[in-house]
Amino acid sequence: MLTDPTRGELLYSGKAKQVYATEDPRRILMHYTDGATAFNGLKKAEIADKGVINCRISAFFMEKMAANGVPTAFERIVGDRDQLCQRVEIIPVEVVVRNVIAGGLAKKLGLSEGTRLAAPLVEHFYKSDSLNDPQINEETAVLLGWARPWELQAMREYALRVNEILIEFWGGLNIDLVDFKLEFGRLNLDGAGCATAVVLADEITPDGSRLWERGTGRKLDKDVFRRDLGDLSETYRELYSRIFGAALR
Ligand SMILES: Nc1ncnc2c1ncn2[C@@H]1O[C@H](COP(=O)(O)OP(=O)(O)OP(=O)(O)O)[C@@H](O)[C@H]1O
Ligand SMILES: [Mg+2]
Q1: Residues 221-230: pLDDT tens digits?
Q2: Ligand 1 near 19 CB (within 6 A)
Q3: Which residues are 111's β-sheet partners?
């Protein structure tokens, strides 16, 4: 039987999660809180049960990705809000995949939201809260030493595979996947860091995705909170029921 890992030192306290050390230096515990932020932390709220819901949704998707050939840092859920994960060195380049014009892309280029792109668009952002995650290209990431060319290649391939899997899954629930953000990490394979692999890390949740109900266009993601469109806790409960076929406890 698996014994639960002990929660050690708090390594990082983020906007939606806390990262704890465990007795095993190769593993961390990721604790999902109910905190929600938008506009790089300017807008904040506590959303009832968001941590439990997102912990389960992300675990569900990470398992699905692993089963479909995308390696992930996720190992298993511990308790209601914690995930045991492989500890990785996060690559400071976030990958966004877009299927439909919305959010930052619409704003930056003065386009209206809702137009479907001819093919999925992969974008890169430098992971820096103080700079508000500016958009970069792959060349910048390589020249500034944030990621190696082969890592960016792997990240792009995995992100597009994740997109295909998510489009199919959400489509089955009558929901369009508009866009989503991923983080990747370097997994140390030899203990010395000489051999590393790129794996999907962090989370796949409605906090980092845009999900629009087909037919109505109703938003089922964190835009409900960003844009004051309704009760985010209710929205996430509804998503949870649709995914798992049963209401949250
Ligand atoms: N497997 C992992 N190993 C190490 N760190 C991880 C792993 N998965 C995720 N992380 C990091 O843990 C933190 C999770 O916290 P959270 O998502 O709340 O951060 P955040 O406030 O959104 O800040 P950030 O902009 O850095 O993501 C993030 O910094 C994320 O990059
Ligand atoms: Mg985050």
Answers
A1: 999 999 999 9
A2: yes
A3: none
